[in-house]
Amino acid sequence: MKIAKIYSNENFPIDIVNKLRYLGHDVLTSYQAGQANQGIPDDDVLKFAHQQDRVVITLNREDFIMLHRNGKEHSGIIICKDDRDYDAQSSKVHELILDVTELKSRLFRVKKQNVKGGKTQKFIYEELTNA
Questions:
Q1: Neighbouring-strand partners of residue 112
Q2: Which of 28, 25, 67 is nearest to 44 (CA)?
Q3: Do 78 and 56 form a contact (C-beta atoms < 8 A)?
Q4: Half-sphere exposure of 20 (CA within 13 A, CB side)
Q5: Is residue 102 classed exposed, middle or buried when 0-12, 13-18 and 19+ CB atoms within 10 A define those classes?
Q6: CB–CB of 75/55 below 8 Å?
Q7: How far apart are the first and last CA of the chain?
Q8: What is the pLDDT of residues 60-94, one digit of tens each?
């Protein structure tokens, strides 16, 4: 099974962190790295994770999309939705990691999409390109 090294940004849900760990991934939290509650700029977060060869997982969509589009070097970014369906979201992140051969320098969003012909939504992932 493919295992990812992940760095969870500040304020990322611990329930998703724990589920990803249960699924076998190596997740380092900002708290464990001694970087919690310090107001560290997002570009420094990205740089730290890259130095550790870790994919950043975050809820902070706007700032990390901007950093990615500005060409900041990184080991991958996964942006999740602020949604309490942690199990489904964790499973979709895990699926993304298993499906994608290389995360380095790529940004993916995990978000909800309406199910065709129904009133329910499901999590999907999509890559955001620089274009």
A1: 123
A2: 67
A3: yes
A4: 31
A5: exposed
A6: yes
A7: 32
A8: 999 999 999 999 999 999 999 999 999 999 999 99
CA torsion, ordered 125, 108, 30, 92, to nearest 10 deg: 20
Distances (CA, A) of 37 to 29, 31, 93: 12, 8, 25
Report the domain count for the chain. 1
Distance CA 22, CA 35 (A): 23
CB-CB contact of 36 with 10 (8 Å): yes
Tell me which residue range forms the domain holding 44: 5-128
Token code pair at residue 88: 């489904």
